[in-house]
Amino acid sequence: MTIQLGQIAPDFEQDSTHGRISFHDWLGGSWSVLFSHPKNFTPVCTTELGEVAKLRPEWDKRNVKPIGLSVDPVEAHHKWESDIQETQGAKLDFPMIADPDGKVSTLYDMIHPESDPTVTVRSVFVIDPSRKIRLILTYPPSTGRNFTEILRAIDSLQLTDARSIATPVNWEPGEPVVISPKLSDEEAARQFPQGYKTLKPYLRIVDLQASVR
């Protein structure tokens, strides 16, 4: 099956380093980042897993549960955890799904049709509390994932879910945003009493941090 933005993340039950996981139950009312690895004991993924562990305060601040996946069994995951702690200085405090049967990899379309069928693609899925998939990224084996960018994207999703806005190019939290074209000027004035700048009728900029006039 093809995974698309806006669809409900497929549910599954699978073993992990934190025991048996029923995915939708495990999600609860949280956001989640599900990210996959082609196999254990690979150099790039080792650095990534350490970084995700180090970012624990950032995940907690955003109500996000990270969860990893690799095609190897749980026993191999635990051995890899030791290597990650030794080399990256961080102990994994989130589950790593074991997917030796390829069940989850297939469910989430993580197997490239022209690659080794036992190896997953390096995918990232951001899932919201309603269990909808909100962002999908796929990285090549040689390029480490940028989790700062993934956090930035989650910040944008959470902010734009709450307001009639979108975030422009290279936006960072606290910077001006754009007002949804769906809002009339009258409604925009009501929702943003601090005022906004109109560059084009479809391009209106507002600083959410600005004080009300």
Automatic annotation (TrEMBL):
InterPro entries: AhpC/TSA, Peroxiredoxin_AhpC-typ, Peroxiredoxin_C, PRX_1cys, Thioredoxin-like_sf, Thioredoxin_domain. GO terms for biological process: cell redox homeostasis. Residues 3-159 form the Thioredoxin domain. It comes from the Bacteria. GO terms for molecular function: peroxiredoxin activity. PROSITE patterns: THIOREDOXIN_2. The active site is at residue 45. GO terms for cellular component: cytosol. The keyword Methyltransferase does not apply. Keywords: Antioxidant, Oxidoreductase, Peroxidase, Redox-active center. Belongs to the peroxiredoxin family. AhpC/Prx1 subfamily. This is Alkyl hydroperoxide reductase subunit C-like protein. It comes from Sphingobium indicum BiD32.
